[in-house]
Amino acid sequence: MRTLDGDRTRDDGRGTGADRARRWIAVVATGVTLTMGVASCSSTDATDVAFDTSELDSAIRPCDNVYGFVNGTWLAETAIPDDESGYGVFNQLRDKIRVPTGLPAGECSAREYLLTTGG
Question: How would you classify residue 8: left for phi > 0, otherwise alpha for psi between -120 and 50, otherwise beta?
């Protein structure tokens, strides 16, 4: 017997072997997914903090000044270098990367390229 889209089906309603294989794979995949989900929820290793609140400025109410609440601690603890007009986390990252190469910040050379590419 053929269906409207041309696929063969069995007269007993069970479908072809490929249909049964697809159903079996779907059942197994669902079971594995549910098992992993339950195992991850009951594990004691899942103690990572999703959002670290230690950097938030608790002296400022977020309803009054969201920018100060979120950035107040960083602004108070981070000094802008005299030779920079602005300073941010990307500047800090650049400084941390360039210092181990032995080059002054802002200077680029072929030596630095060789150090980073391993050539």
Answer: beta
75 token code pair: 């602004």
Task: State both tokens at 1.
Answer: 């017997």
Q: Which amino acid is at 31?
A: G
Contact 81, 66 (CB under 8 A): no
Residues whose CB falls within 8 Å of the CB of residue 116, separated by 6 or more in sequence, listed in order: 101
Dihedrals phi, psi of 8, to nearest 5 degrees = -85, 140
Q: One digit per residue, pLDDT tens: the chain, 119 residues?
A: 555 555 655 555 566 677 888 888 999 999 888 887 776 666 566 566 677 788 888 899 999 999 999 988 888 888 888 888 888 888 888 877 765 656 565 565 555 455 555 54
DSSP conformation letters of 3-38: -TTS-B--TTSS--HHHHHHHHHHHHHHHHHHHHHH
Cβ–Cβ under 8 Å, residues 80 and 87: yes
